[in-house]
Each structure stands twice: as structure tokens, then as C-alpha cells.
Amino acid sequence: MKIAQLVFFGFLVVLLLFSATTWINFRQSERVQENTEFFAHSTNVVRQSNRFQRNILNIVSSMRAYFLTGERTFLTAFDSAMLENRGIIRELDSAADAVQRRPVEKINVLNQRWNAEFTRILAAARQSSAADSSPEALSALYKNEFPELVRGEVAADLQREVRDFINAEYRRREESKTQLAESIAGTRRLSFTLTLVSIVIGLVIAGFLSYHVSTRILRMVRMANSIAEGQYNSQVAYTGRDELGRLAGSLNHMAQVLHANFSELKRKNAELDQFAHIVSHDLKSPLRGISNVVSWIEEDHHEELPPKVQEYMALVKGRLERAEHLISGILTYARIGREQQARETVVVRELLEEVLENQPVRPGLRVEFAHNLPLLFTERLPLYQVFANLVSNAVKYHDKTEGHIRVYHRETEQQFVFFVNDDGPGIDPAYHRKIFQIFQTLQEKESFESTGVGLAIVKKILDARQETVEIQSAAGSGTTISFTWKK
């Protein structure tokens, strides 16, 4: 299975488990809400039922007081209680659920029968009071009818139904409370279990991916480091057809191609070195032979040669010397970056003094080195070549009778910046990039012995070390060439 698919399915399982946990908790919250609503409804039902019971007692006491005293004000309380009980019955009936429906209907039937008996007795009492309004007549009616009505079967059934209804509501509330508590406990256990399983699965997937991916990546990193160290035939073992397996296969293929290409490159570089040496030797030999012949002619026939021929001979020797310098410059340019140089402690001022010893300076030209030039631990020969070419160019191309060449530096956090400044003829900005190209010179080659290789060598040395070189100059205002060198 591919790593992307493994990650997808692993996180899908975790997501489904968390979704299930969320759904369970949501359903539990709905049950809690339903239980809260049921508890509020049941509380209202119990409260109304208690009011119904109290009204029954009020009805009985109002009728008893009326029969005993004959005061009609007690009939008002009777009528009010009767009317309120009818409203309570209607309210209970409209709000009753499936469990409450049948008991409420039964209470309603018994209440109607009981109310009918009261109404009949009350009607008889009113007729009696119309015929004989004495308290003795009402008392006689009370003694004959009222006890049976209060203690009769209908009254007992009504009281029992109301009491049973209230007790049933209390039991339902307790049962609902118990069920809710059990449901909450079960939901907590299930949520905890699912969450724990999700965490375990997530950790297993993360651990597997960390080990499976990191170990294989580390093998490829080691292989890449080996390639960086020059071991281009390195290979990494890989299995499977997942992304990392395909990457490992690609790396192995790349290593094979690199090994083949670098082997071919080494072979061609060796051939090029051999060719450069052969060409240098084969070209320099006839040049030296020609130079020797010219010298012999001058030595043997100096007095016989006309001045014009002597001038031509001097010109030929100059051109031969220039050709030899050109061949040496090409050979030096070809070798740059192909030979590893050992690092050593370099005193820059002493290095520049050595450069100046090997560079003839005409009278009137003063070369000055700053006193605070740094001490470096670096490759000596490349730095020497850079300074030698820059100082040589500043001396060679200076066109004034008296001049001043100065070498100084500036320090940054990571590197030194060296400056070679002269007050010579300067260089037009249009040629600033051209002068660093090989064989490019601003002087006519026939009138000035310049190979056009010196600044190209400087540029190649600095480019090979990721250093920079810049020029600040304008025609007639001198030249400042600066380059960077890492500390």
C-alpha cells in the first residue's frame, strides 16, 4: 500500500471513531434535553394534580359549611373550585402523553360523576331552601345525602385515581432519572473507549510512519552524503512500490548515471590534461626554435642586417614571447578548479610583497600596501594568482609618468573584501563585463603585449569558490577592482 493511502485510511478510521464519539455525545445531549423537558412537564402535572386534590377538599368543605350554616357565600367557593377543576382536567388532558392519557380520562369520568352527584344534592338543597329555608331543613338534607356522597364509591375512586396518578408521576420521574444516569455513565464509558482507541490508532499510525519513513529517508540521506563525498556508485536498498520505494529507485538510477558521467568526465579531464601538456610542449618547442633561430641571426649577422630588418626581428621575438605567454595562460586557465590546494596560514601583506618582487615596476609608479592587511587560513596559490593578475594589470596598463597603486581591504562578518586601486587610464563602463572574458583586451594586440587571460583567470578562480569580483571605473578616472574572500 502506498504511504499516501496508508495515511488516508488511518486518519479516516480515526476520523470515523471521533465522529462516532461526537454522534453519541450529541444523542446523549438530546436525551438529557428530553429528560429535562419531561421533568418540567411531570412537575407541572403533579402540581396541577395537587391543586385538583385541594379543590376536591374545598368542594367538600364548602358544601358542608353551606348545609350546616345555610350561608350562600360558601356556594361561591364551591362553584369556583368546581370550575377550576374542570380547567385543570382540560389542561391535563391536552398536555397528557401516552402514559398519562388513560389515567387522566379515568379521573375526568369519575370527576364528572362526582360533580353530577354534588349538583343533584345542591339542586335538592336549593329546592328545599325555597320551600323551607330553615337551617333544620338543610341539616336534615346534609345528614341524609352528604355522608353518602363524600364517603361513597365515586368519591373513593376519584381520590384513589388522583393519588395513584401523582404517585405514578413520581415513579416515572425516578425511573427517568435512573435511566438518564445510567445512559450518561454508559455514554462516558463508550466515549472514553472510542477516544482511547482513536488515540491508540493515531499513535500506532504515527509511530509506524515515523519509523517506516524516517529509517528509509535516513538511508537515502546517507546515500546522498556518500554521493556528495564523491562515492557516486553508492546504492540504497529499497522494497515495495510506494512513494519512498520509487524515490529510492530514482536515487539509485541517478547515482548510476552520476557514476557513469563522472567516470567519463574524469577520463575526459585526464585526456584534456594530457592534451594540454602535449599541446603546450608541442607548441612551445617550435616557438623556442624560432626564437633561437632569430637570436642566432641577430648574433651572427647583427652588423649586416639593415635597421628595418632588425626592427622586424625584434617584433618577431616579441610576438614569439607573447605566444608563449598566451600558451602558459591557457594552460593555467584550464587547470583552475581541477587541483585541490592545501590550506595554510597566509599573511596577505607578505604575499603581496612576493607578488611585487616578481612584477617589475617602472620608475615613477608607486605601489602601496595597507598596513592592516589580514592573516588568512586559506589556499595560498589561488589567492596569489588573483593578486598577481590584478597588480600586474594595474602596473602594465598605467599610462601616466607618475602613478599610485594601492591595495587595501574591508572586513564583513563572513568575509574580507580586497581592493586594488590605481589612478591609471580607467575603463569605460561599457567594457566592464567584457574584460573578464578570456582573450578579451581593450588594447590593440599588435601594439600591446596582452594575452587577455589574466582577468579571466581571476574570474574563474573566484567563481570556483563562490566569491564575487566587481569593478568601479570610468574612462580617465582610474580603476578600482574589488573581490571577496571568505575568512
In short:
With 487 residues, the protein is α+β, with helices and mostly antiparallel strands. The chain has helices at residues 3-69, 73-95, 98-131, 135-151, 153-228, 243-301, 307-335, 348-357, 380-396, 454-464; strands spanning 343-347, 365-369, 375-379, 403-411, 415-422, 469-473, 479-486. The protein contains ten helices and seven strands.
Q: Main attributes?
A:
phosphoprotein, Heat Shock Protein 90, alpha+beta, two-stranded antiparallel sheet, 2 domains, 487 residues, 5-stranded mixed β-sheet, histidine kinase, kinase, transmembrane helix, transferase, Four Helix Bundle (Hemerythrin (Met), subunit A)
Helix content: over 70%
From the N-terminal CA to the C-terminal CA, the straight-line distance is 51 Å
> Measured on Cα atoms, how large is the radius of gyration?
58 Å
- Give the CATH level 1 class of the largest domain: Mainly Alpha
Backbone structural class: alpha+beta
Q: What would the principal axes of the Cα set say about the shape?
A: rod-shaped
Q: Could you give the order of strands across the largest sheet?
A: 2-4-5-7-6
Characterize the quaternary organization of these chains: single chain
- The count of helical stretches stands at 10
The CATH architecture of the largest domain: Up-down Bundle
Strand percentage lies at 5-15%
User: What composes the largest sheet?
Assistant: 5 strands, mixed
Low-confidence regions: 445-449
Task: Spell out the helices and strands N to C.
Answer: HHHHHHHEHEEHEEHEE
CATH topology of the largest domain: Four Helix Bundle (Hemerythrin (Met), subunit A)
Report the average pLDDT across residues: 80
